[in-house]
Design a protein that fits this description.
11 helices; ten-stranded mixed sheet; Tripartite-type tricarboxylate transporter receptor subunit TctC; 2 domains; Bug_dom1; alpha/beta; 10 strands; BUG; receptor; 19% strand; 329 residues; signal; D-Maltodextrin-Binding Protein, domain 2
């Protein structure tokens, strides 16, 4: 009896595993792909989105057995590439956008973009990179905790380096509002310039992504004091989230969420195949190791979760911009 039960249990488990594998692995369409798949990046080579695309392409070519190219369509801080994807892309599955939010959202909400979020259909989430609020470790506030910096800022106005109308600025405004502070914002063209100014002692604090400050954190020159998102950054386990510190900056609206997108209207079999095959690559041990080496943390998800997050983050950012008088509700 026991032998039969064990045998039956084994067969049931094997069948369940087979069904799970089949559910995850979508059959490759007979007619697709017949030429290379293009991953379109809106930013120059060497940046985090470009590194994301090239790291993935190298892994996916081997695992999927298809040719994958990375194409940089740069200009207008992402506007050129976003517009090209939305308006000049055939809905055939051969062109996949590697999109980073909230940068697509700010094009739409703040820059009068000639497209809407409905012209991009997420098929996978790739990664989430929270914003890190950081100070110079050798400055007057370098030995302080976040709460101590807040108390210091009530007496002495902090000089905070930011690029205008960016997620870095929005996060710092969240801190201002939550802690009843007023910062003096020093404008820069990008997050990297703010880091350079912070290292030089020209500002007291700035916000950035971990990949842009990793070497300076490891050398002891910069000190992270808080991060956005729901969880602590895996590379910064001792740095609290802003939500832990009383600043409501959870979720993925306040960071860079990188996703794969298609044009609406791609045939369902091709879309399902790309979603399944891309997710299998992203969930592999090889991908985890490769992205970790690049300073990026994977948060792989399929189309349903990616689309829900895409809409939720857009709505959250739009509400914030309306509250701060930047857009109408």
């Amino acid at each position: 009896m026991t032998s039969k039960l064990l045998r039956g249990l084994g067969l049931a488990l094997a069948a369940g595993a087979l069904m799970a594998t089949q559910a995850h692995a979508q059959e490759k369409p007979a007619d697709f792909p017949q030429r290379p798949i293009n991953l379109v990046v809106m930013y120059p080579a060497g940046g985090a989105v470009d590194v994301t695309a090239r790291t993935f392409a190298q892994l996916a070519e081997e695992k999927m057995g298809v040719s994958i190219r990375v194409e940089n369509r740069v200009g207008g801080a992402g506007m050129v590439g976003h517009t090209s994807l939305a308006k000049n892309t055939e809905a055939d599955g051969y062109t996949v956008g590697v999109v980073a939010n909230p940068f697509l959202y700010t094009d739409i909400l703040l820059k009068n973009a000639p497209f809407t979020i409905e012209e991009f259909e997420p098929i996978n989430e790739i990664s989430f990179d929270p914003v890190v609020w950081v100070v110079n470790a050798k400055s007057d506030v370098g030995s302080m905790s976040f709460d101590e910096i807040v108390e210091h800022a009530k007496e002495t106005e902090l000089q905070v380096g930011m690029n205008p109308n960016s997620v870095f600025l929005f996060v710092s405004e969240f801190i201002e509002r939550a802690k009843d502070l007023e910062f003096n914002f020093i404008p820069f063209d990008g997050g990297k310039q703010g880091v350079v100014a912070l290292l030089a002692g020209d500002v007291d604090a700035t916000a950035s992504f971990y990949s842009e400050i990793e070497q300076y954190v490891q050398s002891g020159d910069l000190k992270p004091v808080a991060v956005t998102g729901d969880n602590r950054h895996p590379m910064l386990p001792d740095t609290p989230t802003l939500s832990e510190l009383g600043v409501p900056a959870g979720g993925q609206a306040w960071g860079a969420t990188r996703i794969f997108t298609l044009s609406p209207g791609v045939p369902e079999d091709r879309k399902a195949y790309l979603e399944s095959a891309f997710l299998e690559v992203l969930e592999s041990d090889e991908a985890e190791a490769a992205f970790k080496e690049a300073g990026l943390t994977l948060t792989p998800a399929g189309a349903q979760a990616a689309q829900a997050q895409y809409q939720e983050s857009f709505d959250t950012l739009k509400a914030f911009l309306a509250e701060t008088g930047r857009v109408s509700q």
